[in-house]
Specification:
heterodimer, A: alpha+beta, Multidrug efflux transporter AcrB transmembrane fold, four-stranded antiparallel beta sheet, 13 helices, elongated, B: alpha+beta, Hypothetical Protein Ta0175, Chain: A, domain 2, Gyrase A, domain 2, 3 domains, six-stranded antiparallel beta sheet, 15 helices, 53% helix, 20% strand
């Protein structure tokens, strides 16, 4: 089977379309970064508190909002998640105290526990430690010497059941009947109630960390680019390195632009994805460059533009296949990888499309443009200095 | 079958065996559950997959420096007294940002050389410089300063580790955090309620015994009034509890700045009961600390001393006779649990400096298992799609590529098993990406072989040429990607690091499978064909 049989597409002839296409997306991204969404930063970079809550039923966002308003929290955002029972509460850095990092989280949990019966604890938001010490005190099984170990194990089993089998929230005490002794369940019902939610993930980042990470991310990207430039300059010629770096910069700009346009937060894992796609896009570019180098030796008399065109065509089949296959895996990640990897796989989906396009449409044409510019300068100097002009006159006179 | 081929086959099979062992070890059986549990033992999962708490703490190293310079001030004062050097004031102008600086004002010019030699003799870790208006600056030497700060971090790390271990958290990780200055990373697998651990960790448990100079006062203002608005330079006001039995709430005590005994002089601490039968903590001092305490108490018989914990006066007692190595912390109406926790904290050593939390992330176990499920499903779907595509597109050569890909995956997972590297969710993504990018090497080679065949080469020479030409490209692409991965590893933390690890391992494995294994399979296929028979690619 074959998709491309000896293609002969004039890629360089279409350079104006490519330039228009790249400019359109770059400018749209830059405009969005400047005037619309900015560069949306994830919690890692901007700091703040994220509390992920799972309900036993689809939650009423307005009710949650008013619950939080009532206790005096104002700088927050509520975002429904892929799973319709889940909710993300995003507290801005302003509500995150530096002295007491987890205050916001405690406030949120307290605010949501509205129907708390007096004197009862919330089983859905209790740790197994708390449950164990409660059971030890009540001693529903009338255990003797090894009571502590037994109740700790029972509490752990109940917490595991809640977290691993029930996704973090119990809807009713009856669900515990299969897990623990009826006497234990009865004792738990005495001292606990079940709220309709459980907190399943918390991320709190103080202001100091954010600025640190921002610096590190910027440095990592820069070093990555510099490493690439040096390696390519060493293996090929410096202009190849420059062309590759410009290409990769183009890819990064458009990918970050896509995050800005869709207002998706850039987290630490997204930076990892961007670095990966820098590597990937560079792969593509190198494959074409390698072929150009090889063809330059074989076809010394031909124009560089023809050689570049032929090299792109010769590697086109590989380029499209690899891009397609990588895209397939990344798409699987995007579709099935779950909430946590969403930003990561989004960056790769965009990045692989752009990275493949740019190695054909940006990197190789830069080589040709550079050569045209250089040889143009040699053959028809636009600015002729006085001395040269005089010499030329003299030469003419002699002739 | 040639001998060279037999050797290559042995190399491949041995690699396969070695890495399968790396993944599973020697499982108890071949059932699904046996294999899974063997797998769990070999490959350690990151916090984002198994749930737990991740904390980054800042150590306030200036605290440790301040303790040292406070002591230096006391040494300077007594030294200047005995060498009869006059001065008007000695203080630290900026203890918050420059704890290493001490300024002495009003030293007459004729005492200059005396002061200089005093610093040289008594404070070898400091250097002295004269400034304008008869003032002097005594500063901790930069190397000593850096050392003190570094030691504070190391000590804090050790202390936190001890405390966590005593609490019984399994497999905690406590390490210096590379990204910032004086930061510590703590990972607590499976702890879904970090509040108690944090309390125990954060309590500085800075135990000091100081001389009590006055009090108790009902408020800071009344203490100031009694000293006509100015506190003695070597004294400080600390809050404390009221005497047992009195109804008053917070009280204030005037105590000496310097401490006779500090937390590091402690040898042991145990919960006990005081003479009223209330829970208390009794402690024993080390030899050196005991000697210092003895000389202090001998000089101050009939004075009062204050037991200070975390800058709070816990107990005031008068010194009836010199004490050597025992003491008790009571008062404050401790509960039995509190006495037990306090004894634990004191035993595990005081933190040399205060800490605060910069970052806290808790992943519930439910999310962790959801993530594993999602990650594995995405990996399987992606992998199967690629395998099927290669079969359709390259026919028999596709089988070759699929074998190489599967072996690539096995080597990658085996690497993880051997090195004990942690598999995180982005790490699983790294595995998937490796599959996608790993197939690139095969595609490069196969496309090149097809091209050579089109140019009229015979199958053996097309295979030979295809591999040779593709090799330089493959090396170039791998090197640049590995450079990116190494940079990610150096700069990333936690999950991102896990991603960098799987990506680099995958790339190395890919070099072996795509270039070597795939070639061996081709050679084998070619050796079984008659001359002139076409290659299925």
């Amino acid at each position: 089977m074959e998709f491309f049989h000896e293609p002969k597409i004039d890629f360089l002839g279409k350079k104006w379309y490519f330039i228009a296409f790249s400019l359109l997306f770059s400018i749209a991204g830059v405009l969005s970064m400047l005037f619309w969404h900015g560069i949306p930063q994830g919690i890692d970079f901007r700091g703040g508190t994220l509390v992920y809550v799972r309900y036993t039923h689809p939650p009423n966002v307005n009710q949650v909002r008013s619950q939080l308003d009532r206790i005096g929290l104002h700088n927050f955002r509520i975002q429904p998640l892929l799973n319709s029972n889940d909710l993300l509460i995003d507290l801005s850095l302003r509500e995150t105290s530096e002295q007491e990092l987890d205050r916001g989280k405690t406030q949120i949990t307290n605010a949501l526990q509205t129907s708390a019966p007096a004197g009862k604890q919330d089983l859905n938001n209790s740790s197994s430690l708390a449950l164990a010490s409660y059971l030890l005190q009540k001693d529903p099984l009338h255990l003797g010497t090894d009571a502590r170990a037994r109740y700790t194990a029972i509490a752990q089993a109940i917490a595991d059941y809640r977290d691993k089998s029930k996704g973090g929230v119990l809807a009713s005490f009856d669900e515990l009947r299969g897990v623990a002794d009826p006497a234990v369940v009865a004792a738990i019902e005495d001292g606990f109630y079940l709220s309709d939610f459980g907190v399943y993930q918390v991320e709190i980042v103080g202001p100091q960390v954010g600025s640190q990470l921002k610096k590190q991310a910027a440095l990592a990207t820069l070093y990555s680019l510099a490493g690439m430039l040096v390696y390519l300059a060493f293996r090929f010629e410096w202009i190849y390195g420059v062309a590759a770096v410009i290409t990769v910069f183009h890819d990064t700009l458009i990918t970050v632009g896509a995050f800005s346009l869709t207002n998706k937060p850039i987290s630490l894992t997204v930076i990892a994805a961007i670095l990966t796609l820098i590597g990937y896009s560079n792969n593509d570019t190198i494959v074409v460059f390698d072929r150009i180098r090889e063809n330059l030796k074989l076809m010394r008399r031909e124009r560089l533009a023809d050689i570049v065109n032929r090299s792109i065509n010769q590697t086109l089949s590989r380029t499209i296949l690899t891009a397609g296959l990588t895209f397939l895996t990344v798409l699987a990640l995007f579709l099935f990888g779950g909430e946590v990897l969403h930003g990561f796989s989004f960056a790769l989906v965009i990045g692989i499309l752009i990275g493949t396009y740019s190695s054909i449409a940006i990197a190789a044409p830069i080589l040709v443009a550079y050569q045209d510019w250089r040889s143009g300068r040699r053959q028809a100097p636009a600015v002729v200095s006085a001395g040269t002009a005089a010499r030329r006159e003299k030469a003419k006179a002699k002739a | 079958m040639s001998r060279g081929f037999a050797w290559k086959l042995i190399v491949i099979l041995a690699t396969l065996l070695i890495f399968v062992y790396g993944i599973f070890g020697i499982p108890g059986g071949v059932s699904r559950s046996e294999l899974l549990s063997a797998l769990e033992k070999r490959i350690s999962l990151g916090l984002d997959l198994k749930g737990g708490t991740h904390l980054i703490l800042q150590v306030h190293v200036n605290d440790a420096v301040n303790v040292d310079t406070d002591n230096a001030i006391e040494i300077l004062k007594s030294g200047m007294r005995s060498s009869k050097i006059n001065y008007t004031e000695i203080s630290k102008p900026d203890p918050a940002t420059h704890p290493e600086q001490i300024v002495i004002k009003g030293v007459p010019p004729e005492s200059s050389s005396d002061l200089r030699s005093l610093v040289q003799d008594k404070l070898p870790d400091y250097e002295s410089n004269s400034g304008a208006n008869n003032s002097w600056t005594v500063t901790m030497k930069p190397t000593i300063l850096a050392d003190t700060k570094e030691r504070a971090v190391q000590q804090a790390k050790q202390t936190i580790e001890n405390r966590i271990n005593e609490l019984g958290v399994s497999e905690p990780i406590v390490e210096e955090h590379g990204l910032g200055q004086y930061q510590i990373l703590v990972q607590l697998p499976g702890v879904d309620d970090p509040a108690r651990v944090k309390n125990v960790m954060q309590s500085t448990a800075l135990l000091e015994i100081k001389q009590e100079l006055g009090g108790p006062y009902s408020s800071q203002e009344s203490a100031l009034q009694e000293h006509s608005g100015v506190l003695p330079a070597d004294a400080m006001l600390l809050p404390g509890h009221a005497a047992p039995g009195s109804d008053e709430g917070q009280q204030w005590y005037l105590v000496s700045r310097a401490s006779a005994v500090r937390g590091k002089d402690l040898r042991d601490a145990q919960p006990s009961r005081d003479q009223n039968g209330q829970p208390s903590v009794s402690f024993t001092l080390s030899n050196e600390g005991g000697q210092r305490f003895y000389s202090f108490t001998s000089q101050h018989v009939s004075d009062s001393l204050a037991v200070v914990l975390d800058n709070r006066v816990q107990e005031v007692a008068s010194i009836r006779e010199p004490i050597r190595d025992r003491g008790e912390i009571s008062g404050g109406r401790m509960s039995e649990e509190q006495a037990k926790d306090l004894a634990l904290i004191l035993r595990s050593g005081a933190l040399p400096a205060g800490i605060s939390y910069l970052e806290e992330r808790t992943v519930g176990p439910s999310l962790g298992s959801d993530s594993i499920r999602a990650g594995v499903r995405a990996a399987v779907v992606g992998m199967v799609a690629v395998l099927i595509f290669m079969l359709i597109y390259y026919r028999w050569a596709g089988v070759n590529a699929d074998v190489a890909l599967l072996l690539n995956l096995i080597i990658l997972l085996g690497f993880l098993g051997y090195t004990g590297a942690t598999l995180t969710l982005p790490g699983i993504a790294g595995v998937i990406l490796t599959v996608g990018m790993g197939v690139d090497s095969n595609v490069l080679i196969f496309e090149r072989i097809r091209e050579e065949l089109r140019n009229g080469k015979t199958p053996p020479s097309a295979v030979e040429q295809g591999f040779r030409h593709a090799l330089t490209t493959i090396i170039d692409t791998h090197v640049t990607t590995i450079v990116s991965a190494i940079i990610l590893f150096l700069f990333g933390t936690g999950p991102v690091k896990g991603f960098a690890v799987t990506l680099s391992f995958g790339l190395f494995a890919n070099l072996f499978t795509a270039v070597f294994v795939s070639r061996v399979i081709f050679d084998w296929v070619l050796s079984r064909k008659r001359v002139g028979e076409a290659l299925s690619i």
